[in-house]
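fold-stage: in
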Amino acid sequence: MIRIDCFQAWTSRLAAWVATAIAMLGVILVTLFVDLSPRVEGDFFFAEDDPQMQASRAVSERFPSSPQVIIRVEDRADESETYQQSIAELTEELFQVEGIAGGFSIATNNPEGSPLFSRILLTPNPAATNIILETDNTDPEILLPRIEAAIDAHESSDLDVMVSGVPVIVELIRRSLYRDLVTFSLAAVLIFGLIIGLLYRDIAIVVGTLATCFISVSLTLIVVQALGIYIGLLTANLVTIVFVLTLSHVIFLTANWKRAAAEHPDRGRALRNGVRDTLEASFWSMTTTLLGFVSLLIASARPLRELGIAGIVGTLVALLVAYAVYPAFLGRWVAVHRVTEDRRLTVFPGHGLVGVGTITVAVAFLAIGTVGVDTDARLLTYFSEGTELRDGLEQIDEDGGSSTLDIVVRDSGGERVDSRPVFEALEAFQDALDADSAVGVVVSPTSLVGHARTLPLAGLLPLQVLLDIASGAQLDSVALGYVTPERDEAHFFLRMHEAQSGEPREVVMDRLRSHAVGSGLETVVIAGLYDLQAQLGRLIASSLKIGIGGLLLLFFMVALVVSRSGPTAVKMWLCLAAIPLVVLGTFGHLGIAIDIITSPAANIALAIGADSMIHLVVRVRRLDAAGEVSAWNLGVAQIGGAVLRATGIIAAGFSIFALSTFPPTQRFGLAVILGSAAAAAMALVVLPRLVGQPEPPASGV
């Protein structure tokens, strides 16, 4: 129970000024001490202790290698001599870049007749070749600008240069996240403030809302960083998420305060009544949101767990700050207007059977789309179609693949890989991989030995010697780590096509395993980014099912407490269950893949939907206890405006994300908008009808 001295403090002349000063201080502290630069790593989906990473670590330990950067250079002028010279100069410049351990190009290695260098340096386009750079694991955020500077120093209208590779993709994703964090989070905040001003037409409400939300965001960012969680793939949207969570409490608190202030001119009493009428619903809304983020903690994907922890902090902070700070503005600054009870929403069109039937049919249609939901988002979908960056990545992907996969095999009978029969099996496996449409470039012991056979007098050397040569320092780091010292295992390094294959990754990898078995080999381990993405797709699908299913179950328990009625709780649950169906079904119908950044949006939309329903049901329950005959009609009249305002503000704020050049940000914004709209429709249209509310009389119009 809030004590009376709290209300006295809120009505003090200094309270609102102090709150405003704290908000400004919070922004300053975040600017000075919080690292807002997103951190994205090559294993950005998983933590080091995740099982998915153990296979990759095992391959790296047994077959040491370094991340590669692929630079595709195309000759536009069709001048072979000039092109050769340009490649030589660019190669020399790139090899001098700090963080580059070595590499290969047509200036350093002749690809003609070499089964190895023809694979990695030549492209289907005879006018284009690759420069392969071996990195020393320098942070891509540091390395890529150096590479770009070296390329810019040799910029020519005759050359078309495209850069790819895992370090490059990692850095480009980080840049996109940072740009969206700075640009679109701030833009969304400005939109929120503008819409609040247009809806309420009270500068004190605008200032109070923004100050409260800024304090929530600042405190959340500071606490989260203190816990060792930094801005990453999902927490890049944390600013907007916490802002919206706080905004929801503020809007409903404002609505109840306005009604209380219209009834009681005394500010202290009006404030006390407004807080009393809102706090219970806010608490249970916070609880459902908290449970939504808790459900993310069971996910294996590190970004989901990090968002879960950050979301828990943000949810708690949003409630505490909303009720500790915002009442200060209501208690002193916000103007009190004497208004009559607004009953316009008592005849909300959706209360009729036609409106309910229309929404039900729409939800049923969208629900069908959930069958086709694609959780296997490909790397290329992280970048906008038609952009120069996407076109370049697609070109490199078409040439030889953009996602890496490691396959380690051994003889099923335990024979050494340098024995003639086993090596013939390796060659058969190589041929099968080359013929597979999902596979691009393949580097393996057979291609290395094929290159060794081009050396002088190689025809006189036995296979074991050729394999020693191929595994030695002569071919530098590219040849190291393709056979074990014991010669019992062989490593195949694949670049997989992302755009050309429409098959699920699991299907592709099962087929690759069958290629190995058909060649007389057995697969020891499969790892690499392509495999991690497949694992991620399964984790996203699992988290959607378990997380949303578990959240709906928990919500039913909360609904029982809030409504104090089993039938009403069931109907609330049915209405809420429609929200993820709308979001996921729309994505399924439109063929939009759900990536790791987009996946939590359904949970967030679910939490927002729960807010609307809980506030409405709590209000209706109290009206019913007070003896109101048309409790639902009056409840919609009193709370419906706040629901529509919250929905409108959220939709307007997140619509700015559509302008992002980073598709995951666009998809996240779309999911939240869809969920918010569905929640408002279910709360104001369907739920009152499901509980048996009769049509309002004509005199109410």
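fold-stage: in (second)
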Amino acid sequence: MSKSKLLAGVSAAVLIAAAAGFAFLSVPQGSATTPPPPPAAAASAEAGGATSARHTEGNLVIEGIPAIPPELNETLLRYQNARSAGFSGWTPGGGMLIATRFGETAQVHRVDSPMGMRRQLTFYAEPVSGGSYPDAPTDGFLFSKDTGGDENFQLYLHKDATGEDIRVSAPGTRNTDAAWSADGKQVAWAISSQENAIYEIWVADIANPDGRRKVLSKEGGSWGPSDWSPDGTKLLLQQYVSASESHLFLLDIASGELTEINKQDGPTIAYGGGGFTPDGQSIVYSSDEGREFQTLTRYTLADGTKTPLSGDLSWDVETFDLSPDGALVAFAVNENGASRIFVRRLADGGDMPAPQLPPGEIGGIEFSPDGTKIGFGLASAKSAGDAWSFDVATAALTRWTESELGGLNPDSFVDPELFTYASFDGKQIPAFIYKPKGEGPFPVVINIHGGPESQERPSFAPVWQYWVNELGIAVVVPNVRGSSGYGKSYLELDNGYKRKDSVKDIGALLDWIAQQPNLAKDKVMVYGGSYGGYMVNAAMVDYSDRLAGGVSIVGISSFVTFLENTSGYRQDLRRVEYGDERDPAMRKFQEEIAPLNNASKIMKPMFIIHGANDPRVPVTEADQLFAAVKANGQNPWWLVATDEGHGFRKKTNRDYMNAAVALFFKERLLGQGASN
């Protein structure tokens, strides 16, 4: 079995607001026939007038947001309805599983042939982001889902023969990282808790999930299965400590014996995952051992011999898979934000023909059951995410899905331009800019990604295209220090007491904007989610005099209260990045830099957005900042969804949020609207 047979779901090691944006941007989108209805109270207000009193409409709690003009909804609708399809894996018959949305949420669909009909297989009010079949023929695939964004994921087996969904996990647990055994008869997964930092590994016979059993319980970092040995006797486990440190272990299921692979005696190593070769004699993994970037290595279990597979490529290997016979390895490399696929022979490291792709982002790689094709997802700035295959023998590249763009002409979309700018210490910060047509000077939205160990890449973001094409806003997307994709030294530049250095990167970006004749330095806003929300909050404190406002989504307002209140399974994981609030010196530093404690400096409009069920950044982070900014004499906008967690994943909620953000930009950045 290859590592791609892992159904990751959302693991404990997933960083805050993982790459590809936030949930409300990255979930596959679909079409609707009418714009989302405005909340009733807002709709009853005078056109352009604010509804200051907090009120609830459906699942949305709203304060300060004016009525959404119908013409704004109508224009935005086309962009909201752009659909994407995420490649999830191959079916036993050589078709594909994809995740896409035809209603309110993304669900699993099957496509039996290139450009064939999409047949929906899961039907839930909550999103289902994908499914996974084993390598061996089995009646069904695994998938997971939570409730209302609470991330208490439950694991299910979808039976192909009957269409029935059977719960594999125990109710009331949080289940992630499910991995099939090679024979398709067993599944292993991790259980973690919102209350503590204990991780458990469980195993179940798929024919009798009620007979599930615990095989390991550990504290210290997060633990999860990466693969099964071909004979089904061992599990390859990964212990995630931080973005800069992780470990690989072999677990003998029968005895419980745990053995570390490639034990680290010197500098820490970060692994990107691993999987057994089909003969069970070796493990292929990606790591940054001895290098700045993630590279691919074959590790022989008998003697510890390490054979490089990806060579001297100066970028991260981001995903990989082994062919069923173990002859080939396919992997994608992140070259400054754009994905490039390689196919190599495992025996001698020689290159095979590989697909030539336009600049974009790869989503997953998996060999077909017969080993003749490689399946993957691909999205670019001008093309919605879709599923593709590459024939390793004929080098034929085949598109399997063509997602609708809501009636939009992709030629009207803007390709981002890559640039770098010098920060306060001379460090060059990479960034992308999406510029409207014309001469400008254009208003600017600085869009800051989450993580912080994540990376903004040139992928499909229809709402950004709306900002550019319809509002005439230039979108600048920096990968501030602490971002992934630029080596482990860059990744660690914002840790602990260096936290404000990444905020200074935004100050340096404001300096760069001021020097551009086609950008309006007096019309700049900041926008971001999760850690990007913290960056918005901090920038509004430090650069309020240079900003027109900020949109903070599921953002951290105080690292002390965040660390004290985030879910138990992730507290220690985040302390490695942000510092341990239980240490008096670090706590003093965190209190000093907290946007919450410096809210008196926020003198420009803010829009604060959150999910009520967020287990990562609790909604209390938004509550306390909103109260502080309001007490400071400002009138911030407020939006909370009671059925969402860390980001908006449901279309109705997401559509209203995007419309409200667009109105905020029009009124507070562009100076259009009665409430300005």
